[in-house]
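Notes from hallway chat w/ T.B., transcribed later so I don't forget. T.B. wanted the structure written out for a chain they're using in a teaching module, and asked if we could keep both sequence and structure tokens in one place. Agreed to drop them here.
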Amino acid sequence: MPPTNLDLDALRSFALGLETGSFARAAERLGRSTSAVSAQLKKLEEQAGVHLLRKSGRGLRLTDAGETLLSYAQRLLDLNDEALGAVRGANLEGWIRLGLQEDFGEVILPRVLGRFARAHPKVRIEGRIARNGELVDKIASRQLDIALAWDAGERPARVERIASVPLCWLAAANDSGRNDRGEPLPLAVLETPCLLRHIACEQLDRHGTAWRIAFVSPSLAGLWAATEAGLGIALRTPIGHPGSVRVLDPAEYGLPTLPSLDLVLHRADGPANAATDHLVGILKQALRQTLPNDWYDASPEH
């Protein structure tokens, strides 16, 4: 019996529908009718021999088999796109200036740079790990072409929302995190200006919790070291924190419940650039593979 070959077009519709939260939006993005995408999904289930989606309210949820196939689909599509990019973009040259928050430096950057370098060996990337305000300023002054940053309301150029990331209180893994003596809560923070430092102080003030700055660091590495040492608690996201630091339950430790923070992709104004577009695509795919699905839009609709 000959092996079954999964349909890449159907896999792309499947993956895009889950990424956008709607197979109708996926159909629009792909230039197809909704019925054509539905037929692709049915064909994909026939090829896989299992159900990939199940109804959940008005939307759809992945089955266990669907979760498994999605991880393979993204890898197959990545490899397909990388191969096409390498063939079509072999002669692309120039520079791309990419900026990232420290949170994503170790988690995302190696994967993105490696894949892009294989596809476009003649394009050079100038990378910068920097704080949120600096990234936005450099986008506005066109010193960066792309920047992944937290949404602080600035709109210097083109902005695309990527995900909504929960904020959390963090303490040393061996620290109770409790403040039973009634003293001001010690905080470990980054130097100003810092968006997350501002949110921490604002949330504690609204909650009526007294606080004090116990440790200030110019870098995320220093912040983690201070938190691990028990000098104070920190407000960050769950992304990339070391195993020596743990997330605190706000209700259990008498801390304010925190909002989520949008992660956005800034692009400097300027003419379209094929290499930059490809790098943006690789960056978004890497984030999709790294961040939890529930940080994106809700389950896909029909």
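Follow-up for T.B.: The radius of gyration is 22 Å. Might be a good example for the class.
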